[in-house]
Amino acid sequence: MLQVTINGQPVQCQPGQTILSGLRTVRVDVPTLCDDPRLAPVGACRLCVVEVDGQSRPVAACTTPLEPGMVIRTHTPELEECRRTLLRLLSQNYPVQAVERDPLSPFHRLVRTYGLEHELHGKSQAALVDDSHACIHVDMSQCISCFRCVRICHEVAGQDVWRAWNRGDRTEILPANQTNLRDSTCVSCGACVDTCPTGALADKSVLALGPVEHEIRTVCPYCGTGCEMHVGTRAGRLISSRPVMDAAVNKGHLCVKGRYGLEFVHAPDRITTPMIRQDGEWRSVSWGEAISFVAERLGQIVAEHGPDSVGILGSARATNEENYLAQKFARIVIGTNNVDCCARVCHAPTAAGMKMMLGTGAATNSFDDIELAKAILICGANPTENHPIVGARIKQAALRGTKLIVIDPRRIELAECAQIHLQLRPGTNIALLNAVACTIVEERLFDPAVVPEHIGDWAHFQTFVADFTPERVAEQCGVKAELIRAAARVYAENNPAMSIHGLGVTEHVQGTEGVMCLVNLALLTGNVGIPGAGVNPLRGQNNVQGSAHMGCDPGILTGSVPIAERAARFESAWGASLPMRPGLNLLKMIDAANKGEFKALWAMGYDLALTNPVAGATIRTLQGLELVIVQDMFLTETARLAGTVFLPVASSFEKDGTFMNSERRIQRVRKVIEPPRECRTDWRIICDVAEEVGRGTGFSFASAEEIWEEIRTVWPAGAGITYRRLEAAGIQWPCPTEDHPGTGILHKDIYAADEPPSLRRIRYSPTSETTGADYPFLLTTGRALYQFNAGTMTSRSQTQQLRPVDLLLICPADAQTLGIAEHQLVRISSHYGEATIRASISTQMRPGELFATFHSPDTFLNRVISSHRDRFVQTPEYKVTAVRVEPT
Ligand SMILES: Nc1nc2c(c(=O)[nH]1)N[C@H]1C(S)=C(S)[C@@H](COP(=O)(O)OP(=O)(O)OC[C@H]3O[C@@H](n4cnc5c(=O)[nH]c(N)nc54)[C@H](O)[C@@H]3O)O[C@H]1N2
Ligand SMILES: Nc1nc2c(c(=O)[nH]1)N[C@H]1C(S)=C(S)[C@@H](COP(=O)(O)OP(=O)(O)OC[C@H]3O[C@@H](n4cnc5c(=O)[nH]c(N)nc54)[C@H](O)[C@@H]3O)O[C@H]1N2
Ligand SMILES: [Mo]
Q1: In terms of domains, do 609 and 588 share one?
Q2: Whose alpha carbon is nearest atom 37 of ligand 2?
Q3: 513-548 confidence digits (pLDDT tens)
Q4: What residue owns the CA closest to ligand 2's atom 3?
Q5: 11 forms bridges with which residues in the sheet?
Q6: What CATH number is attached to the domain comprising 651?
Q7: Engineering a disulfide at 51: which of 73, 178, 527, 779 sits with its beta carbon 3.0 to 4.6 angstroms away?
Q8: For ligand 1, what atom is nearest to the CA of residue 346?
Q9: Could you tell me the pTM of the whole model?
Q10: Considering every ligand atom, which ligand is closest to the CA of 861?
């Protein structure tokens, strides 16, 4: 502790604190304009000046460290006059209307506090307004040159869009392209708006709808990163969202979807009453009629064809509580293990591969390990677009010297700041990752503290991978041998090294095995169970980790335990017997339907008609079912093409509950507004149907918290997590007791275990989906920043204007050969079907390879996707389809 005197009072401070942070801990408020806790202090605005005994002039509190014995004065008449003079200078040409319109912005508040509002005479100058961006309004007449936008874009977002041009009085802040924001490299994260103290940068939604009245803290409804946000409302309408400063994951940052992707909630075509389809036409009905229709039809089908003719899909977009009830309903009300969720088409291979090798099918480490890693291996993931907050954190780490290795067929954004980019041919992960393992073994780069004593199958593994020399696989993978060796060295020699992977690993016929190859690398190099390391999937949707973990998977019960092992425990908890016949996963449900053995599907928040592979065939199968219950906010393609009954749900802003993010963190989702009209929460609907069929006892809950209380009793690793504890912050499981802090890093003692973890010999059996004369291109598919999966939410928000259509990326040489121009419509066809899409000529791509997004029903890209599946868990091979492409 360090003793100082502030305004005559003795105060204890921490060594290393600046004067400003010392003042804040004792709640002495000095004005600041250039300070933001997310940014390195610069001392530019000088409003925070204070007097320190022994110093001839006032010093900036934000950049001056506290020293023992300092005597500090913060509000002497001289200092206050100095502040007034500074503010007067800043407001010389400042538009007076801005202050009237938004009196509460930090700068406007200061202008008023110092009595300067009557001195303002400026006007907004048209030349300084940039209205080009869909979400962000720019009026640099309000710029006071605090450079917070420039700094946050560099220091947090890692984008460098905003730049300061000229110096002194002539300083101007403009996007790097010096034209406008829309045409710049802006990723629309809104961090600049969030930090701007004046309103020079503002959210268009707030300008249009007026200032926020209430704010509630909740979790973003999009990806598995789990960013926390304050959602602002006015008159019952969502109008803004801003990042939670001390949020565990996003630490004061959000991406475009969390910030500008919320308008879907108020979309005019949101379905707000239940509907039944009769003679092809949708008819609005009461809840009573909808629920009794569902109960009756399910009952008839079970009576006629048996419980295994029915299947339920939980929603990776809904809460843990709701997914828990979905699988409980399938198992004890219907009496089937036919329950799944879209983890099936996503990271089921991760869960399976990691569980087989490490015992737990979830990320070993946390996002906070990114800053601790010396090297990061990113395989088949594109975080700056798909998990932008994680992407920004990785980018910042790279800028500070962390070594990056990117394995991706495309030159993605992170490849630009990577040491090494292995631009492999899609579908060759196994050969490539085995070659990395081979190099580690051959060049003895493994960790001698764990190899060979603390690792299983070493002798066999050594001989097995010896066949995969980089020189031998180079041509197959399309990567130079020396580059593979270099990557192995960077990964193995920079300890700790973290591995992060995505769908470029899992969505293949050897998806599960690809994940296992990554685990091999981590095990060999001692990178399991320590900070800054591990094997870390970037999970897809907001609650896909939770949906499967709650038991929306045919083989497992809540807590990811196999049915055979824990049936007795659940039977006594639920007071009902469990079906012991193996259940069908989603893909097998489709197969069974084609054989006439599967008749009814209840799809909660999952647009499988659009997003499953071989869409043409999938749709025909769905249309052949006797009953398709769609529970969603919008008339999805599944509903439109094959739905029998539609149950309208509340969005995540209209209900309470919890989500589980990629790093096993349970976080509280809070109701911000009332659901529109008749919309009900998913959990309420499930309970209503259970009640209707006379099985209400296990489903009589009055709140999401009551459901959570039941989950805790059946899931020992989550037993310590309560809603009360979640008020303070999210908690990562395992968390067995209420005084347990949760677990950031798994497998701490894995190498010391009696039975050491074992390496796996993974043979490479390439996919049979290959190019030829008819279909000469390899198409790989994935996502883009501004749209999300089925697009139901992003296409109804401001994000839609930022990237309205799916694109097919093609390299300049191929585009030229085929005579394809930028944004031209092209037809892609495969063995399975065809689709029309706009081309975009991109230097990210290599000749012979294409990349397309699948977000829009107008494209219906998945009509061309193949029917190949992962050998272990049937995840579709979305990442490799042989296609032909031609201009239309
Ligand atoms: N903006 C946005 N964010 C999203 C989503 C969204 O739709 N939009 N969806 C969410 C969901 S559900 C998920 S699962 C995640 C997915 O997040 P990611 O896993 O990052 O998703 P993808 O873009 O499908 O694929 C990742 C990368 O794999 C590469 N790839 C393709 N084939 C191969 C291969 O054979 N080997 C290797 N090593 N790489 C290959 C692709 O070029 C691509 O860059 O994103 C989530 N976040
Ligand atoms: N070609 C190709 N196809 C792919 C992929 C690929 O890489 N390439 N990736 C696959 C992957 S990883 C995934 S995860 C799937 C995603 O496919 P889907 O799961 O079909 O897509 P999502 O857009 O995530 O959302 C599903 C639905 O949930 C609804 N929803 C949102 N919140 C709630 C809620 O609280 N309750 C309910 N009941 N509904 C809600 C939305 O309106 C939306 O209709 O696509 C897969 N398809
Ligand atoms: Mo996903």
Answers
A1: yes
A2: 605
A3: 999 999 999 999 999 999 999 999 999 999 999 999
A4: 611
A5: 4
A6: 3.40.50.740
A7: 73
A8: 14
A9: 0.97
A10: 2
